[in-house]
């Protein structure tokens, strides 16, 4: 139990960040039967955290199941929502995966591609910790907002 | 037979166009066992032609099979190859479909989205004639090239 309690304490501020709130909102959106209703933020986002030990238990080669794919989409949806909130323009995510877990994730704003990533080994999708996940999202967000600022005309198309 | 011979005669010039040559090349690329080796251009592209009568025979609601999805990708791959040949920059197509045949097709050049289409009823994908298909591709191509011309900086990113 000490392992699961530790991140809760160190992430007090993190759990109130816009990104984490948006992630929880996106997770609840794909929960039509209310299975997450009684769960806390940390519990809902727990599947996104993949420590080294947990990662080692997952085979290197494997097909992603629907739940992992849904989580990948939640992650990029949340980033899109953040971009939208910051710049006021609609951000559209598009995740394309083969059944083997390889593919591409892009986010477009107008005619501008603000994020373009190659995905691989999606069955092992996850982050070392929630704060690492937020760092990753923040990085994508700041690159995207810079691109939109530089090429605002294309983003407005 | 007269029905199949007619388009061959009227499309003499069309069959030698860059677009049709590229379409045939893309179709041959997804034919690992050489089933199309002995077929003529018209025969290879025949599945793309969906006359009103043929369309009427297909149910309005249906799931697209793999062959139709492959053809949709061939069409957008060919357009991407044309864009690439014209502007010298890599054009990347991305077709994303649900199993119900709804989705989105986009083509990006650098950070520029040069084509963005909503797809629906993909199980009925096809064109009234080969020349109509080429018209459609030419329209997408000219819009894309104009966008690349206007926003060459973003396309070069």
TrEMBL record, chains A, B:
It comes from the Bacteria. This is Putative nitrogen fixation protein. The lineage of its organism: Bacteria, Pseudomonadati, Pseudomonadota, Gammaproteobacteria, Chromatiales.
């Amino acid at each position: 139990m000490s392992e699961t309690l530790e991140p809760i304490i160190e992430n007090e501020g993190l759990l109130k960040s816009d990104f984490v709130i948006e992630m929880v909102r996106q997770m609840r959106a794909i929960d039509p039967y209310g299975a997450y209703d009684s769960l806390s933020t940390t519990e809902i986002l727990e599947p996104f955290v993949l420590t080294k030990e947990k990662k080692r238990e997952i085979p290197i080669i494997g097909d992603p199941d629907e739940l992992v794919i849904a989580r990948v989409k939640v992650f990029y949806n949340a980033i899109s929502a953040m971009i939208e909130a910051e710049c006021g323009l609609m951000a559209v995510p598009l995740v394309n995966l083969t059944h083997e877990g390889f593919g591409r994730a892009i986010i477009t704003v107008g005619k501008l591609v603000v994020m373009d990533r190659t995905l691989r080994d999606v069955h092992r999708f996850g982050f070392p910790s929630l704060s690492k996940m937020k760092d990753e999202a923040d990085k994508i967000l700041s690159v995207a907002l810079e691109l939109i600022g530089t090429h605002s005309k294309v983003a407005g198309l």
